[in-house]
Q: What sequence folds into this?
């Protein structure tokens, strides 16, 4: 028999070596072709007496198998729940057949029957369905390399491991370890996997296949541990074992508080673990597939797969990069400014494998960037996450300077100097005087339009905006802003640079605030308005957190400082003059910053009180003296809705004005830029999920009650009228 | 409908619910059967007259399993014609069992029945029966499951009861219990418990510390702070359910919460005619009974709603109640009840409560029904309302009226 997705070689001992090697793919995944082939092979394997056992491995250097093809899952269509279940159960049934040799659980546990041995030779990473295939084998041996990842990351895209992962894992390593692994989606390295009991052996690469074959040869008749009569869950299971009871009480609480109850997948995984630990194995697998079916048919998984996997990956692969421009080679980058942003940019650039010349007015100022990285690297070295040599090599790549001549051989300039047009103009001129004529100049401005700044450049076609977020080494988003005259090469360079530092890039129109800074201030403004209306600050903070925002808006304002918000407001006022549109928070900001001096955490106080070390103590009780608490507090749902819709409306406005040109970019920018609730797939996905008509109606209602700022953009009303969706195809 | 009358109430003393407690060597069957035998014998009954017995038990597993009521009836030497049922409404079980007995009488099913309860917490620890509520993820998350101690601290936080407030309440409970014992106010109800050779092993509530003062309580660390703020962090869940709360103020500890004890109680309930037939003297009339469900996360605010329902069913106003008895599960529960119902501290739990004497889960409701009946007779007052807060957000209440 021949297969398209793997080869099968049967040796003299009758042991089949199945080598998975998907054609035209850099990585093995479970797709339609592999499932089809595998089904045929399992049939042959279980019935062909000439085959005594099997070893499954991968022909890819990239690893063993990276899970299911999410585009296939995302596009799965079923006409009925039953059909959806049958689809979901297909892989489970297949793996189970291999595991049991087609024998019944009853015959296996009574010893009347046994299965042929299947060993899994893990030559590299095994994720999701890849690891689940391995777990369905009777023996697992993995190459001894600390970088190999063995994990089940399905939860990250709103799914659960639906190939027996929620059942075999706890039966091997106990419910607690399994819960940690599956709920957090974190991978284990081979040594940890062996210590926990997830794999049997860890061997050098050269011995991998021989080790697996030797095990098969030595164990001609096998049954999985859970098919034996004496099987017990390591660490206890079920509803009566006190160890398991205590575990579930704790797990439920921790998962609930961490996820705010927003993630369907986390709840489904917990239920699979709990219910599955009480059931016989075959029933447990069916229950797992039922929960999987529920998730797959819900909106969360679809939205998360689309934004957090498909669109994120596409963006990172350079979906927005102009085609036809040859790769721009970037080995050395000149960073202008050693402040907070310049330091962060320096750090991520070196981390991306490039050399950096960081320039500031004095060597002392430039050295601040060196100190910034030094602190991070020292910490990594002291925690054993980096060797001292690697740390030294990292630091050696940073050259601080106050001399523009040192920029002469850089391949890219990123400026992060003070946000003043004259200061920017000065560094643009000085840098362009020394760099090669083909070198792209990027500005990390957050407020000044790129087209305006490019006027200072002698080659505006090579001038582009790269908006980083602080702290640069932690924030995953990069806004790429082409100005009016920015050419394809500059845009391509921005993408090629990003590919090295591995941020998630979105292309954004050159308008004040670009994208994220257009949405973020109204959101903060709404929180402040709620305070001035006498809504309990705790209710505002908790409402935002329960929406899925990582931190309450008032705490966030304290972090970014009210002073900064006040300064931006003042400068915008000055710049726009009569055109300035009051946000309604002017008096409040004035009170907090100027009159009360509660300027933010860095200044010792803000919405919260802080101790001398800057630790947040509790909300400032004095607020009620200035804005007395309303006798009747709004419901948490109402506060949540206002905090959510203010973000949705601002994002929609940006989409209408083509600040972001597609819903994909808007969703990525929102989640990775300001932490918009990831389980929604982003604001645009959220609007599609509730339906444009519903969105417009709710926004109209809010506008009527709370002000015009909630009015839905015109184009959204039109789309709603036409019954359209933001994501046109396969929404 | 037929009226139901309370003819008698008997309870064991409460022994410390630990291996060194005086009742630890007494099996739950033995403890319950001594109480059942006493309520039969001291009323001159043979047992045959008692048609059904309902006993509360909150951990009905192990030696409290398999319908302990029936086993205890047989152990008490009742004729085999008396049936038994085991009831679980968490902390309200004992009162609910009495209400069931009363309901059987009122409905005409029985002429004479016994309600009561048993809990040997030293032998069958709390939580022994597991349960889906906190462990099945679908239940735990949907209901914002938090342990009762966190709920009690949440009540204190939401209604602004400080550590001093709850401690002061606890000191008073100890003081009142001490006075009640000194003045032998429980004498009519207490049944000393004997061992297998007939020696008395306990004749008083073992847990009491009448000397307790603010200073001694002040030395105790909050009991629920760790599970609230650290692992697994139940406070966040309480706050998710009550998002106007910024932080939970952890004020409860062993000294201002109900004690873990062993104990059993029984209440004899019957029709007027049954009393006449068997020569029994009615002590009180059951005026009304009620059970309610309330929000399960804050869990322990049910008594005010149960009390309101019982009052409404009786067509009474709260001013019609002379004496209030609310199980002292946690100090904040009583403080909240007093505030919500505008009940003066002098009129509630006048002889102390579970903070001083302990809370044998399945039995407490029947015990405090007897306590409040003794108090009506002692004080010459007329009406009393007994109620308890209950796990998963419930409340049960009973109003009685003294009849002689």
A:
């Amino acid at each position: 028999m021949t297969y398209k997705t793997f080869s099968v070689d049967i040796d003299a001992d009758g042991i089949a070596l199945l080598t998975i090697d998907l054609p035209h793919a850099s990585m093995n995944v479970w797709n339609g072709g592999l499932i089809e082939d595998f089904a045929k092979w399992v049939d042959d394997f279980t019935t062909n007496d000439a085959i005594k056992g099997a070893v499954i491995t991968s022909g890819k250097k990239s690893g063993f198998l990276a899970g299911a093809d999410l585009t296939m899952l995302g596009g799965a269509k079923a006409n009925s729940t039953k059909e959806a279940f049958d689809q979901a159960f297909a892989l489970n049934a297949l793996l189970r057949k291999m595991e049991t040799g087609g024998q019944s659980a009853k015959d296996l546990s009574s010893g009347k029957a046994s299965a042929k041995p299947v060993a899994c030779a893990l030559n590299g990473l095994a994720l999701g369905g890849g690891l689940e295939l391995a777990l369905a084998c009777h023996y697992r041996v993995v190459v001894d390399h600390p970088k190999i990842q063995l994990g089940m990351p399905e939860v990250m895209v709103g799914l659960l491991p639906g190939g027996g992962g929620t059942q075999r894992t706890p039966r091997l390593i106990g419910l607690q370890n399994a819960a940690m692994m599956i709920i957090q989606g974190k991978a284990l390295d081979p040594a940890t996997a062996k210590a926990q009991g997830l794999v049997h052996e860890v061997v050098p690469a050269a011995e991998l296949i021989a080790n697996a074959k030797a095990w098969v040869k030595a164990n001609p008749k096998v049954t999985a541990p859970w098919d034996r009569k004496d099987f017990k869950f390591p660490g206890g299971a079920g509803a009566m074992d006190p160890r398991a009871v205590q575990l579930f009480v704790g797990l439920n609480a921790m998962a609930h508080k961490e996820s705010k109850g927003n993630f369907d997948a986390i709840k489904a995984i917990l239920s699979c673990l709990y219910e599955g630990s009480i059931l016989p194995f075959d029933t447990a697998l069916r229950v797992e597939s039922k929960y999987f079916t529920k998730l797959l048919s819900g909106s969360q998984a679809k939205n998360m797969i689309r934004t957090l996997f498909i669109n994120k990956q596409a963006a990172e692969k350079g979906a927005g990069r102009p085609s036809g421009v040859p790769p721009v080679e970037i080995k050395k980058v000149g960073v202008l400014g050693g402040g907070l942003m310049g330091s962060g940019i320096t750090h991520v650039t070196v981390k991306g494998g490039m050399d950096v010349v960081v320039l500031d007015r004095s060597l002392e100022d430039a050295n601040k960037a060196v100190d910034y990285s030094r602190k991070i690297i020292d910490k990594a070295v002291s925690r054993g996450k980096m060797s001292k040599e690697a740390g030294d090599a990292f630091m050696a790549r940073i050259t601080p300077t106050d001399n523009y001549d040192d920029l002469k051989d850089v391949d890219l300039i990123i400026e992060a100097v003070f946000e003043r047009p004259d200061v920017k103009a000065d560094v643009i001129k000085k840098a362009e005087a020394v760099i090669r004529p083909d070198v792209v100049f990027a500005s990390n401005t957050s407020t000044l339009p790129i087209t305006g700044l490019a006027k200072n450049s002698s080659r505006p076609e090579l001038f582009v905006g790269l908006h980083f977020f602080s702290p640069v080494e932690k924030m995953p988003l990069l806004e790429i802003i082409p100005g009016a005259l920015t050419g394809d090469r500059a845009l391509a360079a921005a993408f090629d640079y990003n590919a090295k530092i591995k941020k998630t890039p979105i292309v954004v129109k050159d308008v004040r605030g670009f994208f994220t800074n257009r949405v973020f201030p109204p959101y903060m403004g709404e929180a402040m308005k709620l305070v001035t209306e006498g809504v309990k600050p705790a209710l505002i903070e908790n409402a935002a957190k329960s929406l899925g925002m990582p931190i309450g808006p008032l705490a966030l304002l304290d972090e970014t400082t009210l002073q900064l918000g006040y300064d931006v407001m003042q400068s915008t006022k000055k710049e726009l003059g009569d055109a300035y549109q009051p946000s309604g928070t002017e008096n409040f900001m004035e009170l907090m910053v100027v009159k009360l001096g509660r300027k933010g955490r860095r200044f010792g106080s803000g919405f919260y009180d802080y101790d001398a070390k800057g630790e947040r103590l509790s909300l400032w009780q004095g607020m009620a003296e200035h804005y007395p608490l309303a006798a009747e507090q709004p419901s948490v749902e109402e506060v949540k809705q206002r905090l959510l819709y203010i973000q949705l409306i601002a994002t929609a406005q940006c989409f209408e004005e083509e600040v972001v040109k597609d819903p994909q970019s808007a969703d990525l920018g929102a989640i990775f830029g300001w932490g918009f609730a990831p389980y929604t797939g982003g604001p645009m996905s959220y609007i599609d999920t509730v339906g444009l008509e519903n969105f417009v109606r709710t926004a109209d209602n809010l506008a009527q009650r709370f002000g015009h700022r909630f009015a839905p953009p015109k184009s959204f009303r039109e789309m709603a009228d036409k019954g359209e969706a933001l994501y046109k195809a396969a929404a | 409908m037929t009226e139901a009358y309370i003819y008698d109430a008997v309870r064991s003393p409460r022994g410390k619910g630990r291996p060194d407690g005086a009742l630890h060597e007494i099996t739950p069957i033995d403890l319950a059967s001594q109480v059942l035998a006493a309520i039969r014998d001291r009323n001159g009954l043979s047992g045959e007259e008692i048609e059904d017995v309902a006993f509360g038990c909150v951990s009905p597993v192990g030696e409290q399993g398999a319908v302990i009521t029936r086993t205890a009836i047989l152990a008490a030497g009742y004729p085999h014609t008396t049936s038994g049922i085991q009831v679980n409404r968490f902390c309200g079980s004992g009162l609910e069992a009495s209400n069931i007995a009363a309901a059987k009488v009122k409905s005409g099913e029985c002429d004479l029945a016994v309600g009561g309860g048993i809990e040997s917490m030293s032998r069958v620890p709390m939580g022994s029966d597991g349960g889906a509520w906190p462990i099945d993820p679908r239940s735990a998350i949907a209901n914002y499951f938090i342990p009762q101690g966190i709920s009690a601290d949440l009540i204190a936080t939401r209604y602004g009861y400080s550590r001093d407030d709850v401690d002061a309440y606890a000191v008073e409970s100890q003081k009142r219990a001490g006075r009640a014992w000194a003045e032998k106010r429980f004498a009519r109800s207490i049944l000393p418990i004997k061992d297998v050779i007939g020696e008395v092993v306990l004749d008083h509530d073992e847990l009491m510390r009448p000397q307790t003062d603010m200073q001694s309580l002040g030395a105790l660390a909050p009991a629920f702070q760790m599970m609230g703020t650290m692992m697994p962090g139940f406070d966040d869940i309480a706050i998710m359910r009550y998002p106007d709360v910024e932080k939970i103020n952890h004020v409860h500890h062993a000294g201002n919460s109900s004690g873990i004890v062993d104990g059993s109680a029984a209440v004899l309930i019957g029709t007027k005619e049954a009393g006449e037939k068997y020569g029994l003297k009615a002590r009180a009339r059951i005026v009304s009974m009620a059970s309610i469900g309330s929000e399960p996360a804050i869990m322990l605010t049910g008594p005010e709603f149960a009390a309101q329902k019982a009052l409404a069913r009786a067509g009474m106003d709260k001013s019609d109640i002379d004496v209030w008895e609310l199980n002292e599960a946690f100090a904040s529960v009583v403080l909240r009840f007093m505030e919500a119902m505008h009940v003066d501290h002098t009129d509630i739990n006048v002889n102390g409560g579970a903070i001083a004497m302990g809370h044998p889960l399945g039995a407490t409701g029947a015990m405090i029904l007897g306590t409040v009946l003794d108090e009506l007779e002692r004080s010459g007052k007329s009406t009393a309302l007994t109620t308890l807060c209950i796990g998963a957000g419930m409340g049960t209440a009973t109003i009685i009226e003294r009849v002689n």
